[in-house]
Amino acid sequence: MRILIAEDERDLNSILTKKLTADGYSVDACFDGEEALHCLSVAEYDAVILDVMMPKADGFEVLRRLRQTGKTTPVLFLTARDSVADRVKGLDGGANDYLVKPFSFEELMARLRAMTRSPFGMADNTLAVADLTMDCAAHTVRRGGREIALSAKEYALLEYLRTREKAPLRTAGRYFAVIGIFLLGAVAGGFATHFLGAQASLVCVAALALGMALLRLE
N or C: the chain end with fewer CB closer than 10 Å? Predict the structure, then answer.
């Protein structure tokens, strides 16, 4: 999942970038409103974390111009201004959520998860297809109750595929299904076991199951 952070406090910007990256997100960071508008014009984001008080263009202006383009990218405002009038202005301007500084990183992550799951019809942080379950809060994937060990990059890829529209999901589903079938054939010939070790069969079945699950998401 790709996130844009627009925050002019460089220490806070750096901390947020590091924490989100460590949590498996792909992060772009900028420090003023003009940079934020440029990033939003050349890339697609799953969510934007936007400071209100930024130089060159404040958060309200960035949000206004983003919504003028017709984009519905979820936006979370960060601000030290906690008046009701400011919160109403931000939410009425098209923001999805509003978090007052100082804040806990755990609360920020919970709000980010809630904000990004809504467009995809998820009532909670869990996506289940057949016996494949993905916990978006814990960043874990299980099949038939058994956890599939994924690296941060592998989980980020799965998260990205989960949030794509239906046509790319079909393409991704076919891709993983073909990989799973190919590797199962390689296991039968002994080649995959040589390269993947004792868990070769599990890797193959997981790839095949993921492919079929993605195809069923249509």
Answer: C
